From TrEMBL:
Molecular function as annotated in GO: hydrolase activity
The keyword Transit peptide appears for this protein: no
Keywords: Hydrolase, Signal
Signal peptide extent: 1-19
Species annotation: Trematosphaeria pertusa
Protein's UniProt name: Glycoside hydrolase family 115 protein
Pfam families cross-referenced by the UniProt entry: Glyco_hydro_115
InterPro entries in the cross-refs: GH115, GH115_sf, Hex-like_dom2
Amino acid sequence: MELVRLLLCFFVFVIGTRAIGQPSSLGFSEADGGLKLGGTGSAPTIVIDSKDWAGVTRAGNDLANDFGLVTGTKAKVATGTSGLADTPVIIAGTIGKSPLIDGLVSAGKIDVSGIKGKWESFTSALVDSPTTGVSSALVLAGSDKRGTIFALYDISEQIGVSPWYWWADVPPKKKTAIYALPTKKTQGPPSIKYRGIFLNDEQPALTNWVNSNYGGKYDSRFHAKVFELLLRLRANYFWPAMWNSRFYTDDSKNGPLADEMGIVMGTSHTEPMARADKEKVKPWDWKSNQNNLKKYMQDGATRAKNWETLWTMGMRGGGDAASPTLDATALVDVITFQQGVLKSTLGVSNLSAVPQMWCVYKEVGGYYQAGMKIPDDVTILWSDDNSGNIQRLPIPSEVDRIGGAGVYYHFDYVGDPRNYKWINTIQLSKTWQQMHLAHERNARQIWIVNVGDLKPLEIPISHFLDMAYDMSKFETPDSTDTWLKAWATREFGGDVADATAEVMATYGKLLIRRKYELLNNNPFLYSIANYDEAENVLNEWEALEVKTQSLYDKLDSATQIAFFEMVLHPVMAGKVVQRVYINAARNAAYAKQKRMSANELAADVKNTYAQDAVIQKRYHGLLNGKWNHMMDQIHFGYNNW
């Protein structure tokens, strides 16, 4: 019988789960020894002790809503187990914070030895008679606040709610029955300790959207949506938008909300000590205005001292540029002062347990190369070249530092020599190659990626954060293909998963040749005269669009929306840009040769250019304008950054 149970659990894992890359604890047909949690007309009660973290209760309420999305019946959330004899029960809680979970541990009902004291880990098991009156319950125990939160959202993903259900409109996968399987599951700790995103370069698209939906401020309503997405993606770290925003003062609820939900707040490489760029004192110069800069930094520490924060150390010049008066010696003085502030403000004598990072970005690398000494408890955050090529990673003498190392990566960039910030231009296999290298070279403390407006980069964000959570699933080059198929299955269903993975792999191959904003560089990228190169490239894009459209046509109307946003739109819009530039180049060449076909190409360029606006309007009109402005970014006619 035990062999049958194991085989059944494995079979359900293979065909039933929608969670990417992690073991299953649920099934969708009756299983020997399983517990029916819900189905058509029924849902469980989720029990979370009132003494547990508020963020855990919040995630529990999200799970209750998710049961409603997939079964039609919303689950209930309770703080105790009395009166639950006739209802399926999920008990969730944090070791050392939930008396209910601690009681189960003391009674020998659950074994938490594999996760206790570990970072962001959880275990789940089906437990007989966990409390008086409850015959069986699915128990989720977290090692810490986020461990429990991840356990709850893991159930959400397994029952059929994508992390992108709101941000990319992925429809929940309806279920008529949901069973907890008689198997123990343990996850964590994550491969990378701090994993997150940086909202940046947010004007015009994201800011225009925020102006329309949140009254012109990146407020707590907006951030609640972002934080929920991050936690569902098993991320924990966030750099807020900073072009014209002040996270902590734009809405006084922002800071407490992040801490309650379980998000570790940071600030970008140019914003030290939890202060926003737009809060900087003038002149922003350590040499001439040191007293005011010190107060600025002290005030940041004082404001954020009670919230979970990863402190940005050091400083740069104003406006994301080098400081004309700062050198390595002065920068050491800055960091020494900042560490003194943290010790006095946080009331500690040793900062080894206080997360701090110094980002080696642009000119900052020159200070380190010149021999600048960084305190051992500060994480060195290495950066890429803004185009996905990591410039430096730890050498043998650096791998044993207490603070360790991390990576600041880019899926979006504004700056010299050219911006790229319109839609997804990320080849996933390139991301894998770079981040696998970072992991192998022990840059495992922080991974943070610049995601621009967030919305057009759903796929690379998911890929990046899944790697950061569990790199053991990404040890070989073909792991990206495996991941793409699993991702497409979760979002769109198994019938189109393989072909969708092929589409996105081909898309990555085509766009890696040159990003859209760089296509007007001279000389033109593709040859008009030799080997029909330009025409062959255009034919590849045309064929890709035909294949993608055929997949779209196979989907139900609800799934088509998500597929359009993440797959069909970038292919369609990308092909338009390619066709405009390729045929404009052909037109210019043929006109010099006085060919009559030059006129046909000129007309085609005009007609194709007009299609760009049609596609943009279609995107902005989705769901009664839910994403209006998200495609506002200019993408034709770049001649400088």
